Automatic annotation (TrEMBL):
<dbReference type="InterPro" id="IPR002347">
    <property type="entry name" value="SDR_fam"/>
</dbReference>
<dbReference type="InterPro" id="IPR036291">
    <property type="entry name" value="NAD(P)-bd_dom_sf"/>
</dbReference>
<dbReference type="InterPro" id="IPR020904">
    <property type="entry name" value="Sc_DH/Rdtase_CS"/>
</dbReference>
<keyword id="KW-0560">Oxidoreductase</keyword>
<comment type="similarity">
    <text>Belongs to the short-chain dehydrogenases/reductases (SDR) family.</text>
</comment>
<protein>
    <submittedName>
        <fullName>Dihydroanticapsin dehydrogenase</fullName>
        <ecNumber>1.1.1.385</ecNumber>
    </submittedName>
</protein>
<dbReference type="GO" id="GO:0016491">
    <property type="term" value="F:oxidoreductase activity"/>
</dbReference>
<dbReference type="Pfam" id="PF13561">
    <property type="entry name" value="adh_short_C2"/>
</dbReference>
Amino acid sequence: MLLSLTDRKVLVTGGASGIGRACVEAFRAEGARVVALDRAGGADVVRADVTDESSLAAGVAEAVALLGGLDVVVGCAGISGPVGTPLVETSAADLAAVIAVNVTGQLLLAKHTYPHLSDGGSIVFLASDSAFVSVPGMVPYCASKGAVVSLTRALAVEFDRVRVNCVCPSIVDTPMARGDLGDEALDDAAFPVQTAEEVARQVLFLATPLSRAVNGQALLADFGYSARSAFPA
Ligand SMILES: NC(=O)c1ccc[n+]([C@@H]2O[C@H](COP(=O)([O-])OP(=O)(O)OC[C@H]3O[C@@H](n4cnc5c(N)ncnc54)[C@H](O)[C@@H]3O)[C@@H](O)[C@H]2O)c1
């Protein structure tokens, strides 16, 4: 399959860890030039906080200077927040933190990268299957990921020069998931688990001209769980 990513200029937020890191490596393996942006450090990481507009703008400016423009932007920076805590016991500060990174961070990323994106470019956000399904103790995270699906659709309408899509994976084996669920739950999982590399391939598809007609969409990659009827057949 011809991905046409050679020398494409790619910015990945959350690029120091997990799915973001896997995206950085997958794009590089296809010949793209990639800048990773993250609030955490790393040898090849531009340090910036996606919730802080001046910090993010400076990080984007540095990436644009390093690459000479942008063709693809991937928004992976995210936090799970107080997973496992019922909403009635969740502080306003914890709610605000989840919305700040997962929603405002993606909006600011779109705001500051769109002027630099080439015509025909692509933005891909990490949403989650949590935009569509839930378990108790995940209300803020689910709300934030539902917002990512919505902002994806709205941006696809407003941004006429680039496509905007999001991926919505179920559980992915990353430091975030291990931190929330524990190593045991993932090492001997009683449910299907994706690798970060598998999610990166979904992102790559949405970033390439192969998906030229796909715009404003949420790619729900959950092994078909959400498609099942309540009817016990
Ligand atoms: N792991 C899963 O099961 C799963 C499933 C569906 C969706 N997702 C989503 O995928 C994305 C990546 O998650 P992951 O599992 O790789 O997590 P991760 O914790 O391994 O990586 C997230 C990265 O985002 C960075 N980050 C967090 N807040 C930031 C900020 N304010 N500014 C800049 N960088 C910031 C972190 O430093 C980290 O490097 C997230 O948006 C997450 O919600 C994860």
